[in-house]
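One such given next:

>
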Amino acid sequence: MRKRVVITGLGVVSSVGNSVPEFWNSLVKGKDGAKEITAFDASPYRTRMAAEVTGLDRETHFLKKEARRFSRCDQFGLVAFREAWRSARLDKDLIDKERAGIILGAGSGGILSVEKYFRDFYQGKGRPSPSLLVSYSLATTTDLIAIESGLKGPRTTIATVCSSSSASIGAAYEMIQMGVADVMVTGGSDSICEVSYSGFSSLKLVDPEGCRPFDKRRQGLVIGEGAGILILEELEHALRREALIHAEFLGYGICADAYHLTAPEPNGEGVERVIRTALYHAGVSPGEVDTINAHGTATPFNDIAETRGIKRVFGKRAKEIPISGIKSMVGHCLGSAGGIEAVATVLTIKNGVIPPTIHYEVPDPHCDLNYTPNHSIKRDVGIALSNSFAFGGNNVCLVFGKYTPHPTLSP
C-alpha cells in the first residue's frame, strides 16, 4: 500500500520575515523584501539591490563562538530547522533516530565566508580565521543540523542551483515512500555571496528596478537569501503521536530540458513534462489544481517558457488558475528558493489565501495568465503546485494537497 506523506513542521528565514507567521503576514500584504545590499560592496555591478535577510538576532540563536564560526547560510538553516522542529512537536528522544533523516538543497552555501577569508588574507588584515573556510562544503548546513538533532537516517545534500530545495523535498518524500524513513527534514538554505551576485549581473539577468515577474517591463531577478525547512512525516507515524498536520505532500516530478546551460527550452516543453509527471505520480488530474506557485524569475525568457508550459498542460483552463510569483517579494533565493516557496505553498493551502505577484502593472501578451496581480485573494485551495526550474534545465514540480483523513485511519 502506498504510504502517505504529510507536512508536520515548517520553518523559514527570509527578507520579509524570520519566522513563519512574520513571513506569511508579509506575503499576504505584498511586502517587498528588496533593499540596498549590505553584505558586500555592490557598486561595480548592474544593481545594488538584494532581498537580504535583516533583523535576525544571532545572539539570541547562537553562542558567540557559534556566531563567529557558522556561515550566514548555516545560521539561516539552523534557525529555520529549529522553528520547523518545534512546530512539529517532535521529541528526538522519543523517535527512532535511525529512521529520521535530512536531505537539503544547497546553492552558494558558505561562499560569502570564504570570500571574506581570502579578502582579509590578500588585504593583509592579519591571519584570517580558518573557521571561515569550514562552510565551503555545500553539505555543512546539513551536517550541522544532523549534529544538533542527532538524526542518523538518510542524509545528503542536493545541488541543482535554483531547483535544489525542491529536488531535496522530492528525494526526502521518496525516503518515506520506500519505507527507509519515518521522518525527514528537508528544504534548503542559501546566502548571498559576491561570486553569484556578480555572475547574474554579468549575464544581465538582474533588474535594477526590482523583480517584476510576468510584467512586460521585467528585466530580470533580484537575488535573495534565506532558508525554508519542512518536516515530512509518514502519515501513520504522525497520527500515532497526534501531530498537527499542515498539508499532504502528494508527489513530485523531476526532469531535464537537455537544451542549454542557462536558457530554458523556449516552447515550455520541459515545463509541461515536469508538471505532467508530477500530476501523474501524485494521482491528480489537471482539472483538480487550484493554484500554482510559479518559478517566476522575471527574466524575459523564463517567464514566457513557464507560461507556455502551463498552457500546454491546462489548456483553456490555464487562465482560470491563480498563479503566485513570490520572488517579486522574497527575491530569487537560489538554493533555498524551492524550500521557501514550498513553505509558502503549504501555508496557501492551510490558510486559504493566495499570495500576490507584486509589481505587476503592464501586461505582456506572451504572459497572459492570471498572476494574482498585486493583491492576495481568499480562495479555498485543495491542490497546489510549486514550480522550480534551474540552470541546465533542471526542472522540479511539487504537488501539495489539503490533508483529508483516510476512512481507515483515525484523524
The longest strand covers residues 247-256. Residues 236 and 275 are 28 Å apart (CA to CA).
